[in-house]
Amino acid sequence: MTVTRFAPSPTGKLHIGNIRTAILNWLFARSTGGTFVLRIDDTDVERSEERFVDSIRADLAWLGLRPDAEVRQSQRTALYELRFEELRAAGRIYPAYESQQELELRRKVLLGRGLPPIYDRAALALTEADRAKLEAGGVRPHWRFKLDPGAIEWHDLIRGPQHFDAATMSDPVIRRADGSWLYMLPSVIDDIDHGISHVVRGEDHVSNTALQLQMFAALGAEIPIFAHAALLTGAEGKLSKRLGSLGVEHFRDEGIEPQAIVALLARIGTSDPVEPFANPAPLIAAFDFSRFGRAPARFDEAELAQVNARIIHQLAFATVADRLPAGMDQAAWEAIRPNLTTIAGAADWWHVIEGPVEAAIDPEDRDFLATAHRVAGAIDWAGDPWHALTGALKEETGRKGKPLFLPLRRALTGLDHGPDMAALLPLIGRDRALERLAPS
Ligand code: GLU
Predict the structure, then answer these.
(1) Ligand 1 centroid to residue 302 C-alpha, Å
(2) Cα-to-centroid distance, 304 and ligand 1 (Å)
(3) 82 and 218 Cβ atoms separated by less than 8 Å
(4) Region 341-356: what's the mean pLDDT?
(5) DSSP structure string for 66-93
(6) Which of 24, 41, 181 most suits a substitution to test ligand 1, by most atoms within 8 Å of the C-beta?
(7) Dihedral angle at the C-alpha atoms of 162, 166, 171, 173, nearest 10 degrees?
(8) pLDDT, tens digit, for every residue of 218-239?
(9) pTM of this prediction exceeds 0.90
(10) Interatomic CA distance for residues 182 and 196, integer angstroms
(11) Going by C-beta distance under 8 Å and a sequence separation of 6 or more, which residues neighbour residue 241?
């Protein structure tokens, strides 16, 4: 049974990077008939805010990524306490008393000597008496997880074989002196408790994984499978600051549909093509970590806009009806849909249908349009008025191609481009068409 989790910290809104992580977790869970858990990582009481929890939920709902369960770390501290005590009793967690400044100084000294800035485990050398003395002096300890020496290895579903040497890593601080938790250990405790089978996240977490693998082992748990996705870069190929500020609100304002975001983010950085899927079923069916590459995935807003337009061109009237201008029916939607890049753009074409339109008539076309007006009054409007009109005009005036079509389009819509006139003209209707063709 596959269980994935998306574990954002509610210290801000979701941005394109963590939206992608959510999408990958959701797609993989759905592709395997598994479960997708939303875990709110709100152990940092100072920086976590309820409004961000709400916006994370709302963003996932808008994207169509429905979690099967939601859990919050702030409600699970009793379990963390329990497992902390177990690890402490087993000698895998130890108190340390250095201040930030002291640690910083030691780091600088090591770096200055060209050595890796690894914590020297001075706290492990303290005797019971040393600790009692420090604590009597008002120093409260923070807590570190003691790494086992040796190689740390795993097979990453995206990155392949991974190798770290514990000797090159510092024992991670897992709990602050005030008793609050850092992200590392609670995440492992939750992954175990929730039976997470696959941890899917960004490659910025790779070195955390090395540390966390030892925590899984120390807690006697089976180790989940890991997949670390390469980071996103901007269109220009560089890690851009802008990506961190792009969230659901921005895309919604730009008229981007959630399906476009899912379709694009599911495929960038993979060997599969980006395709405009209005329904995620094919993305779910074809989801495969082995398609993901290790090179950064390029996120291009222009590409997103293109995918968005191609998705809009497929959307059924019923799915968009409540977002269209009042009165706009299925025939109108289907006529203008191929010309839209956003659904909001439907209003502009609706205005072209309803009028009034303003048309700049070329003096050379006046006679032609006067003829058109007469012919339009005589044709059968119930059938295919555009072909009836243009067919009769061709016969009568000898015009064909652009000189035939363009003046009509201009007079009838006020524009040189737009939806297929054969679909548009019945919507404009006889009365409005005659009015627009009438000599001024
Ligand atoms: N709260 C962590 C983050 O947002 C979770 C990382 C993880 O997936 O374990 O980076």
Answers:
(1) 29
(2) 26
(3) no
(4) 96
(5) --SEEEEGGG-HHHHHHHHHHHHHTTSE
(6) 41
(7) 0
(8) 999 999 999 999 999 988 777 6
(9) yes
(10) 20
(11) none
